[in-house]
Amino acid sequence: MTLANERVSRGIATIHVSPGGRIGNGDWRDSGGGLPIRSSLGTLFPVMMARVFFFVFLMGAVTTLKAEPGATHYNELYRPQFHFSPAKNWMNDPNGMVYYEGEYHLFYQYNPFGDKWGHMSWGHAVSRDLVHWEHLPLALAEENHVMIFSGSAVIDWKNTSGFGSEDRPPMVAIYTGHHTDKKLQDQRLAYSTDKGRTWTKYAGNPVIDIGYADFRDPKVFWHEDSAQWVMIVTLSMEKKLRLYGSPNLKDWEKLSDFGPRGCTQGVWECPDLFPLPVEGGEGSKWVIILNIGGAAPAGGSGCQYFVGDFDGETFHLHEESMPAIADGSTAAGLWADYGRDFYAAVSWSDVPASDGRRLWLGWMSNWNYAQDVPTSPWRSAMTVPRSLSLREVDGKYRLLQEPAGELAGIRVSGSVMERPTAGTAERLIRSLDAELLDIELTMAAGRAISITRGTSGSAILHVDEDRLRLDRRTMGETSFHEKFPGVHEAPLRSKNGLVTLRLLIDRSSIEVFANGGESVISDLIFTETAPTRLGFSSSPGIVRLGVYPLRSIWR
After folding, report:
1. HSE on the CB side for 453, CA within 13 Å?
2. 418 near 544, Cβ under 8 Å?
3. Which residues 6+ apart lie within 8 Å of 463 measured at CB?
4. Distance from C-alpha of 9 to C-alpha of 61, rounded to nearest angstrom
5. Could you tell me which residues come within 8 angstroms of residue 253 by beta carbon, excluding any fewer than 6 positions away?
6. Of 189, 263, 306, 395, which has the fewest Cβ atoms less than 10 A away?
7. CB proximity list for 42: less than 8 A, separation 6 or greater
8. Cα 488 to Cα 510: distance, rounded to the nearest angstrom
């Protein structure tokens, strides 16, 4: 048997055994799906031996749980307090994000056996408010030399796949099978008829196999105008995105290719394609999301995007929105986030039309140092969920991101001040004595803000007329990797000399949203646990300041 996942909920330890069965009523099976342990085996000896074996295994598993109090309290050094993180072990890309019957599902790349990349499977959590998360057992496990790489999930409302029924539509996961015994990646299906709690891998897998070693990360959606499922997937080394169409999620035909365009210096991964409203009620455009494994503005991995139109077969790029440079360099791309720690971002499927939002989140790390960050017993966290829209600026479309409104639900009563002096603002923040902060600020450009925690040094946010810069070189632990310290810069438009900012400061991260999310920087920090202080470089300069301490989502 293999211990695939553990969770602690309301003080009760639940142990999930995979792939043979689960603890509860019914038969116990070995990990190979062999003879039931509790069954008519014909003799007493096999039953007794099987029960002894399982008892020994169970006691070892329970001992493991008791040895990890941090997994219960989520209060270890550097543990995020309002960002999602796994109880233990390695996590990277968000996968299979889908909404169904009141739950936001977050699947993610997960190693059940260690805190570094490997044995890729799908971890699983759900939330009813995008803020508080319940850990669920492992959803899709590596087996038969096939890892479960990134992908998406949809609700097959019309049961086109035949995996469910009209009154109980199936949840269908579409993922990349990464073969460990040969250089091959293909696209596969799994389905669930119990709200994602248990999964069956499709017997007809793979559904697409073109014989490529780097062909991955399918994002699937239903396109109403062409009455078909559409898949966007990467030909990673060719720097191309391929579009496929299907009537039933099983049978796919090529529609078109897109690329190479934008920044082409890194490996292409984790695409998405969706429509977005343009701010001000000026219609909508389609957006391609393309995560790239190197050469992002801050260095290493990052997320670029393209704006255009989609007719059910081909994506037509809005050329006017692209930067003038066309040499494949970093400057050739449009970037969703200019920090060092935003990657593999994809959006939730099936968010109700009554909600109206396009919601997404990203993996809050960077492949340059992700396996070296000084956290234990877990590695990695996600950004906060964000709501997306478009803004037209001088004939060019630009992506906007703002924290999902549900985050306000963990605000503690804060304070709002109009035109405070720098000293008054600093004293206000000091008086709140809070580690976790949500700050809304309107200020004059040409200023700087220092963010300090205990004796861990400071990060400096420079707010210039046309640039936003976050310098984390002298804040907290930076020595674990030479590429971690740095200054990360985003373009910025001041209006009448003013800039609006939203700062989300967690125990191990800073997310900065400028001018309604037109410019975003997401960066990790690793400091001691202590109240957060802010310092302002000059006065006057602050027009409006709102400061809101946040509660931990784990306690």
Report:
1. 25
2. yes
3. 443, 445, 446, 447, 448, 449, 492, 499, 501, 514
4. 16
5. 244, 245, 246
6. 395
7. none
8. 12
Average pLDDT over residues 67-87: 79
Three-class DSSP labels, 308-323: EEECCCCEEECHHHCC
Give residue 282's pLDDT band: very low, low, confident or very high (50, 70, 90). confident
Q: What's the mean pLDDT in 377-394?
A: 97
Give CA 153 to chain center in angstroms: 14
> What is the Cα Rg of the chain in Å?
24
CA distance linking residue 186 with residue 262, whole number of Å: 26
List the one residue out of 262, 288, 290 whose CA is nearest residue 273. 288
- CB burial readout 460-484, b (16+ within 10 A) else e: bbbbeeeebbbbbeebbbbeeeeeb
Across residues 7-20, what is the average pLDDT?
29
Q: Where are the beta strands (DSSP E) in 436-486?
A: 437-444, 447-453, 458-463, 467-471
Q: Is 1 helix (H, G, I), strand (E, B) or coil?
A: coil
**Annotated catalytic residue 93:** yes
Instruction: Kindly report the backbone phi and psi dihedral angles of residue 347, in degrees, each rounded to the nearest multiple of 5, phi listed first.
Output: -105, 160
- Sequence-distant (6+) residues with CB within 8 A of 84 are 106, 125, 133, 361, 381, 382
Tens digit of pLDDT for each residue in 238-279? 999 999 999 999 999 999 999 999 999 999 999 999 999 999
Are the C-beta atoms of 172 and 156 separated by less than 8 Å?
A: yes
Identify the band that residue 66 occupies on the pLDDT scale cut at 50, 70 and 90.
very low
Contacts of 442 (CB under 8 A, 6+ apart): 498, 499, 500, 501, 542, 543, 544, 545
Question: What per-residue confidence (pLDDT) applies to 262?
Answer: 94
More confident residue, 49 or 84: 84
Lookup: tokens for 428: 């206000």
For residues 555 and 544, give the distance between their C-alpha atoms in angstroms, rounded to a whole number: 31
Residue 447 backbone phi and psi in degrees, to 5: -120, 175
> What are the beta bridge partners of residue 29?
36
Q: What is the pLDDT of residue 313?
A: 98
Q: List residues bridging with 498 in a β-sheet.
A: 444, 495
| pLDDT value for 464 | 94
Two structure tokens written together for 383: 């950004």
Nearest to 20 by CA among 4, 8, 7: 4
- Evaluate whether 155 touches 168 at the Cβ level (below 8 Å): no
211 closest CA partner among 250, 172, 185: 185
Q: Is 293 helix (H, G, I), strand (E, B) or coil?
A: coil
How many helices, marked H, and strands, marked E, lie in the chain?
3, 35
| Annotated catalytic residue within 27, 93, 251, 272 | 93
Please tell me the distance from the alpha carbon of residue 99 to that of residue 473, in angstroms, as a whole number. 39
Does pTM surpass 0.85? yes
Instruction: Summarize pLDDT for 198-213 with one digit per residue, the tens.
Output: 999 999 999 999 999 9
